Amino acid sequence: MDRYCVMGNPVAHSKSPWIHARFAELTGQAIEYKARLVPLNGFAAAVREFRASGGHGCNVTVPFKFEAANLPDLGGRGGVTRRTPRATLAGACNTLRFEADGVLADNTDGVGLVRDIAVNAG
Asked: What is the dihedral of CA 95, 8, 69, 93, to 10 degrees?
């Protein structure tokens, strides 16, 4: 089973676990997706631990989005090795994908907001 999470502080309000569980159910995927409350001074350590325990990636929420875009080396497993143009432009990211050689940082906040406005606000 692939493991994912959303990391933040606070994070209990996040709808991501429900959204991802429902998406997995509808698409027949076996995933685990949980909310993780991360200490304010412990983001890099939390990411390192989650990755080392077999996590595939995570969403990032406040207050860690800027820190996530510049994640340092994760104990020899690579920090952020690549950023999408969106993450580079924003200087922040809300998505980390763990790859064999490091971490891909992306920011889907802007495109999601624009799509929501276009579709739902006319």
From this structure: 40
Taking CA atoms, 30 is separated from 3, 24, 27, in Å, by: 9, 6, 9
Catalytic residues: 65
Residue where the block lists tokens 């969106």:
86
Per DSSP, the chain holds a count of helices (H) and strands (E) of 5, 6
Q: Report the amino acid identity of residue 71.
A: L
The single-letter code of the amino acid at 36 is R
Condensed to tens digits (0 to 9), the pLDDT of residues 98-119 reads: 988 888 999 998 665 556 566 7
Q: Which neighbouring-strand residues pair with 106?
A: 95
Q: Are 60 and 93 in contact (CB under 8 A)?
A: yes
3-state secondary structure of 3: strand
CB 91 within 8 A of CB 117: no
Spell out, as residue ranges, where the chain has pLDDT lower than 70: 73-78, 110-118, 122
